[in-house]
Amino acid sequence: MNMIAADALVTGDGGQNNAPVQLAVRGVTRVFAGARGKPPTQALRPIQLDVRENDFITILGPSGCGKSTLLRIIAGLDTPTEGEVRLDGQPIRGPGADRGMVFQSYTLFPWLTVEQNIRFGLRERGMGEAAQKERSDFFIAKVGLRGFEHHYPKQLSGGMQQRTAIARALANDPKMLLLDEPFGALDNQTRVLMQELLLGIWEQAQKTVLFVTHDIDEAIFMASRVAVFSARPGCIKSEIAVDFPHPRHYTLKTSPEFMQIKARLTEEIRAETLAAAGQ
Ligand code: ADP
Ligand code: MG
Questions:
Q1: Cβ atoms within 10 A of the Cβ of 38, count?
Q2: Of all protein residues, whose CA lies closest to atom 15 belonging to ligand 1?
Q3: Helix, strand, coil abundance in the chain, percent, nearest 5
Q4: Using CA atoms, how far apart are residues 29 and 70, in angstroms rounded to an integer?
Q5: 65 CB less than 6 Å from ligand 1?
Q6: What is the pLDDT along the chain (279 residues), one digit of tens a residue?
Q7: Alpha carbon 66 to chain centroid distance?
């Protein structure tokens, strides 16, 4: 376990990964205007974050601390009040195919089948029929949905819908995957299987992943680095490099080394949750 002070990241000390910085979050804040007569809400204090190619960063924090706000800003769905986010050196100005999003609530098109959902973005980009089919078949197999190509979302379990959403995001070949509590609505057994599935894909595909969760086990198991958020207004309170080798097996979660990181993070999150509750 390797603690890195959040402010040290600006100098480029991002743990073991020495790949180039792909995403640079610099001094990002977000203040939401209050509804009629209500005071404004400061969701984020200045955030600094370096994400390197192939990083798997989990963002862990109490509910309401600004995790989704940060992810939406990185996705280009919201704009910071101050500061900026750069992807490969270019300021983010809106959503783009270079960032694939998966949210907690199922965001598949209900009137399209699994295959049509996955092919949607490819068709929009003007990819030929045969190439679309080949690509969607590949990712359908990868997420274990062979045989369900022609099912509609309502005919699928929650886990299968999220597997479709992941396949759809991956099929567009984004530079980064942005996931906001993607397994939050799943039962625990399914959730654990989905963690292994996504981690397996990452181990092969070497994508850059930013994964928001409030589940400590999930945050440690998947991450190359865990960024811990403070209570709102959120900032990155600490970062922990998670050095367990890959491929990771679920039994890792009961190892003494895992439990040690978990104990530390449990304390940190508890302190922030108490702070959020005003105690
Ligand atoms: P988290 O994802 O960590 O649970 P969010 O980023 O969703 O937290 O929210 C952080 C804070 O910002 C909360 O207090 C929330 O109510 C507020 N907030 C989020 N989006 C908006 C919005 N569009 N307008 C006003 N307040 C918002
Ligand atoms: Mg959220």
A1: 9
A2: 64
A3: 40, 25, 35
A4: 9
A5: yes
A6: 444 443 333 333 344 688 999 999 999 999 999 988 899 999 999 999 999 999 999 999 988 999 999 999 999 999 999 999 999 999 999 999 999 999 888 789 999 999 999 999 999 999 999 999 999 999 999 899 999 999 999 999 999 999 999 999 999 999 999 999 999 988 999 899 999 999 999 999 889 999 999 999 999 999 999 999 999 999 999 999 999 999 999 999 999 999 999 999 999 999 988 888 875
A7: 14
**Structure tokens, 103:** 């949210």
Sheet of 82-87, strands arranged across: 41-52, 21-32, 82-87, 90-91
Whether residue 40 is preceded by a cis peptide bond, meaning omega within 30 degrees of 0, is: no
Residue with tokens 């190509």: 149
32 lines ligand 1 (CB under 6 A): yes
Which residue has the CA at smallest separation from atom 4 of ligand 1? 64
What the chain holds in terms of domains, given with CATH numbers, is 6-98+175-279 (3.40.50.300), 101-173 (no CATH)
Q: Cβ neighbours of residue 273 under 8 Å, at least 6 residues apart?
A: 62, 231
Indicate the DSSP class of residue 103.
Answer: E
Three-state SS at 230: coil
Going by CA atoms, what residue is nearest to atom 27 of ligand 1?
A: 32
The amino acid sitting at 106 is Y
